[in-house]
Amino acid sequence: MNYCAWKRPLFFFIIILLITACRAQSTPEPLVLPTIQVPTTAPLAENSRIEEAAQPPATTQPAPTSTLAPVIVDPSPTSTPPSLPTTAPAAPIPSSIDGQTYRVTFVKADDVLNVRSGPGVDNELVGSLLPTANNVQITGEGQLVTGSTWVPIVAGDVQGWVNGRFLTTSLNADTFCQDMNVQVLLQAFRTAVANQDGNALTQFIHPERGLRIHRHWWNPELRFQGDDIPTLFSSTTDHDWGVADGTGFAMVGPFSEFILPLLQTHFVPTEAFACNEILQGGTAGIVQLPDGYQQQNFYSFNFPGTDEFASMNWGTWVIGIEQWQGKFYVTYLVHFEWEI
Fold first, then answer.
1. For the domain with range 173-337, which CATH number is right: 3.30.420, 1.10.3470, 3.10.450, 3.30.1060?
2. Tens digit of pLDDT for each residue in 225-242?
3. Reported pTM
4. Which CATH architecture has domain 102-169?
5. Which long-range contacts (CB under 8 A, 24 or more apart) does 110-114 make?
6. pLDDT tens profile 173-190
């Protein structure tokens, strides 16, 4: 009895020790969990450093920088440079600054109108226009170079500068013939010739573009401009008008000797006239305009001749008229008569 009584307390004591030992083993386990969680925390911290480290490289590395720059910084520079070369040097202006179209004039069939990179003959040749070119557009203000106004033009794929004297406004023939302003101009021109009024003449002839005169269509051209115009009737300066038909004699003398008498006889008193048609009498010669003159509208005035000479003393003046900068001017005079 006593042995058992002693044994029970001993047994319970052992049990308590075992329980205590078990509790002592379970206590470190929570300490192990933080140890296990350390690797979990460490990778998070490492990833955070890589992301932060990735930020500076993203700014400094070529790939990210070049990708972001055009999107954020370059839209303005990128859009600006292309617009400058596109609108200024490359793209031709589609229409004339004055709303007009022009055509080449006074250029012979076997020649061309040179187009240069700038105003004046010293600039590089960049193209040419045929004598029949008729869709020329003046795209800017002209520049005066050695007495001639050069203008910037576009004609198809040709772009550059030409001497403006070899351009004229394209004007429909029917519109020209029906324009009362042209007829008023011709009447005023007739009066100036009848009165030999040089000052009045300056109102009808462009000071720079001048007046071209042919004693015969096949004789050489003489051009008068500027200060020549007001003194044209009174000047004693000799000019070479070519050679006389039939005899071949040289015709050298002032305007008042070789041209004015024919104007007073075959133009001033005439009643017969036609628009864009050359009126004529009998002749063995050819009746046509000088080469390069066909591109301008004109009126012809015909003196039919007299019975005394069987009308062989007929004469016709062809008067070329162009519109330039909105105003009509007399541009050329060509005389026709009976020829052998």
1. 3.10.450
2. 999 999 999 999 999 999
3. 0.72
4. Roll (2.30)
5. 113/162, 113/163, 113/166, 114/162
6. 999 999 999 999 999 999
